[in-house]
Amino acid sequence: MKTILLVVGKTTDQHIIKLIDEYVGRINHYMPFSIEVIPELKNVKSLTAEQQKEREAEMLQKFFQQGDHIVLLDEHGRERRSMEFAQWMQKRMAASPRRLVFVVGGPYGFSPAIHRLAAEEISLSQMTFSHQMIRLLFTEQIYRAMTIMNNEPYHHE
Predict the structure, then answer these.
(1) What is the pLDDT of residues 36-56, one digit of tens each?
(2) Which of 49, 81, 92, 128 is deepest in the core (most CB within 10 A)?
(3) Which of 71, 73, 66, 61 is nearest to 105 (CA)?
């Protein structure tokens, strides 16, 4: 199973990029993992938030494939502790979807069309983080889940 973090827009902070790359490399020791970037919209000043979400939805839908297990990272999703997330990951991996696709939307979240395509929604916190930080936090949590699943001494509870 391939696991993908699908994001809208590039990460521009070089410090964050370096840390994300470190965790992506670590995750790839356990399973195939990549971050895929959908370009951010241009000339959005004339668009409403709903119009922006719809245009982003069109681009996201082009990426999805039949059989994908799509999970939105959304503030209204279910929160899990790290141990619970590791158990959830283990179940998803055992179910053997072709691709497990986690999605970080644009600045206004997801359109209803994307919500309908998703199998699940996960929230990392009730707090708001920049999209660049979410990428780092989530890749670290995937790595943490892999170490938990493999009984390695990274996570302490």
Answers:
(1) 999 988 888 889 999 999 999
(2) 92
(3) 73
